[in-house]
Design goal:
single chain
Amino acid sequence: MNVNFVLDDFIKTHVTKRRESLFAADLRHHDATLRERLGGRNVLVIGGAGTIGSSYVKTIVRYPIRSLCVVDLNENGLTELVRDLRSSAGVRVPDPFITYPVGLGGRVFEKIFRRLGPFDVVANFAAHKHVRSEKDVFSIEAMIENNVFRARRLLDLLAARPPEHFFCVSTDKAANPVNIMGASKKLMEEVIMAYADRVPVTTARFANVAFSNGSLPIGFLDRLNQRQPWSCPTGIKRYFISPQESGEICLMASVLGASGEIFFPKLDEQRDMLEFSEIALALLRALGLEPDVCQTEDGARQKAAALSDRPTRYPIYFFESDTSGEKPTEEFVTSGEAADLDRFASLGVIRNAKRRALAEVDVIVNRLRACFEAENVDKAEVVEILKSYLPTFAHIEKGRNLDQRM
């Protein structure tokens, strides 16, 4: 195998196919504004240990912020974030810089918010992001609790002490959602938009982050390290940005956007969409391996168990996607949304996102709460409640979930 493999180089060469960040020109053009708006500011990052949250942290420390507080339930992730920042050449870590392994919405979080605040910039990345999180009513309740209910409680805290900028990450899957994760993020968008007159809120929909935590591509490397076979769907195309680019788009959206705006990357369907199977095959070859295509999961497992110490071929099982909530392609803007494509070189901005009254948003929030409190509620009931409120939600139900796949 290729011992000189460098993941960042692979992403630039085979996934994004960009040697320079997509957002480099916009960052240069708006550098003075970013430095002015971030200089001397106190920053709170929620969910800052994940791929996108940590990339946001690594981006914002390029600017002269005064202090940085990062919270995340992932204690090990926070530890790695600190080690990464403190070990990187040329990185200015602000003082104070402090991390806390706590979750959004709890009593300890609220004490931290009130004691260490007020914060000038607040960015929230605490979210369930996987389609697999809709496997049953328990996982769905946990996802909506995190993506919607806790976001609402955070906004109530912020309304009492409004920051200069509040950002809450969304997803391209919120545009015409076909899965409950996407619907929950679309509902999150509507919750934060209901506060747009009281708190300066922005969000961003963007593509898959290449080799992010828990993603299929990073799973290829994890399986390789454990000498386990790869499993990959065919015909599923996605847009991809790099981890660095994910932090940069969120930073620009959080600081340069006007309240109520939704940012998205300007990507081209023909040029920038890529199948997961293309990534898998390119990755094998970059690692010095040839694909050993298997016809069944069991056959792939048997071949992996028989691998030599220095294999030249690696077992991979391709299959047609048959799980709920999988969208064949992705989009960022829906019918009725007006996109400003002129303000930035690499970013589009939705300026007319629908704003409902908070009382209207509370109707659906309360219906969902009541649903989860009832005995014997099932997934179909939650889907119907979401459909009644989100007319573009067209759930794809196939009776199988990703936890039933290798």
